[in-house]
């Protein structure tokens, strides 16, 4: 019988997922020093190619995108069953169904999920910097139902392809009618009501941690700490063409970096979900 112990840390890219992973790593290890951003083994990435290859014994680079996707549920079952206790996986894939009609996220090993959401206007700016592309291209991608991450065929990425869909489709895929409990955390609440928001997540996960432990983990994962750490030792999850992963981490930077036309284009395409979460 499968162990129902995976908690998915899900989000569209640049929405606070990595920040929370660092916080969670610090909380779980409860060390006297901040956990290195290059040692997040407690919260690995579900689309990491090395995890897929190690568990399947195959070379994912020799498979096509659909072939790897069909094997991913088995990878996550093996990952869940290989150890006792809670297991965490960061994931940017939208919650989608495979060519065999089954969901890529196996319910049999899923305990719950936390979904991180951020104003898509800020996401567009941050994701453009992360991808070393223009905001014009990024807005176009966020409005494209066929958009996928790590989907170029002229190279082998260190991660498997991840279907992102449009920003709104991604949000709704994870927040509407899933067969397991889900907690939605807004990036803006993580910034402005940090302790209350992170404490809510800790309780949802089911961890028994003191107020002091939560506060220390928050302190050890502050943006200033993460940015300084990246400048000192680099960050292996940073995109090759990006200047830095931890750039600003602020709310509302789109007002200075996104043109009025692009902001309007994104708002018009994502209006329903933006309004639902208070972004309009």
Kindly, what is the distance between the CA atoms of the first and last residues, rounded to a whole number of angstroms? 46 Å
Biggest sheet, open or closed, and with what strands and sense?
4 strands, parallel
Classified in CATH, the superfamily is P-loop containing nucleotide triphosphate hydrolases
Structural class: alpha/beta
Number of strands: 6
What form results from the Cα inertia axes? globular
Q: DSSP strand (E) fraction?
A: 5-15%
Based on the structure given, which CATH architecture is correct? 3-Layer(aba) Sandwich
Helical stretch count? 13
Radius of gyration: 18 Å
**Which CATH C-level class is it?**
Alpha Beta
Widest beta sheet: strand line-up:
2-1-3-6
Helix content: 40-55%
What integer is the average pLDDT? 91
CATH topology annotation: Rossmann fold
Q: Give the low-pLDDT segments.
A: none
Put the structure in a nutshell.
By secondary structure, the protein is an alpha/beta fold. The protein has helices at residues 17-29, 49-56, 65-81, 120-130, 135-142, 167-175, 187-192, 194-205, 211-220, 223-233, 254-257, 260-269, 271-276; strands at 6-11, 87-91, 110-117, 148-149, 162-163, 182-186.
């Amino acid at each position: 019988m499968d162990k129902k112990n995976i908690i998915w840390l899900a989000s569209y890219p640049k929405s606070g997922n990595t920040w929370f992973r660092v916080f969670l790593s610090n909380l779980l290890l409860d060390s006297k020093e901040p956990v290195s951003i290059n040692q997040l083994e407690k919260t690995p990435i579900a689309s990491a190619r090395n995890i897929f290859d190690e568990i399947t014994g195959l070379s994912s680079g020799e498979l096509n995108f659909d072939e790897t996707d069909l094997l991913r549920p088995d990878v996550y079952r093996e990952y869940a069953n290989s150890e006792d206790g809670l297991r965490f996986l960061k994931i940017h894939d939208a919650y989608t169904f495979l060519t065999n009609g089954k969901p890529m996220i196996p319910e049999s090993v899923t305990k719950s999920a936390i979904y991180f959401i951020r104003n898509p206007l800020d996401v567009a700016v941050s994701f453009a910097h992360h991808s070393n592309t223009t905001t014009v291209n990024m807005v176009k991608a966020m409005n494209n139902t066929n958009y996928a991450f790590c989907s170029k065929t002229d190279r082998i990425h260190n991660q498997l392809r991840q279907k992102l869909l449009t920003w709104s489709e991604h949000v709704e895929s994870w927040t509407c009618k899933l067969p397991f409990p889900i907690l939605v955390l807004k990036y803006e609440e993580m910034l402005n009501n940090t302790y209350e928001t992170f404490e809510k997540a800790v309780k949802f996960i089911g961890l028994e941690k003191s107020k002091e432990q939560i506060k220390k983990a928050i302190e050890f994962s502050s943006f200033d700490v993460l940015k300084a750490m990246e400048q000192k030792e680099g960050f292996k999850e940073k995109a090759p063409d990006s200047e830095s992963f931890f750039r600003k981490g602020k709310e509302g930077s789109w007002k200075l970096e996104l043109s009025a036309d692009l902001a309007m284009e994104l708002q018009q395409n994502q209006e329903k979900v933006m309004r639902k979460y208070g972004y309009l």
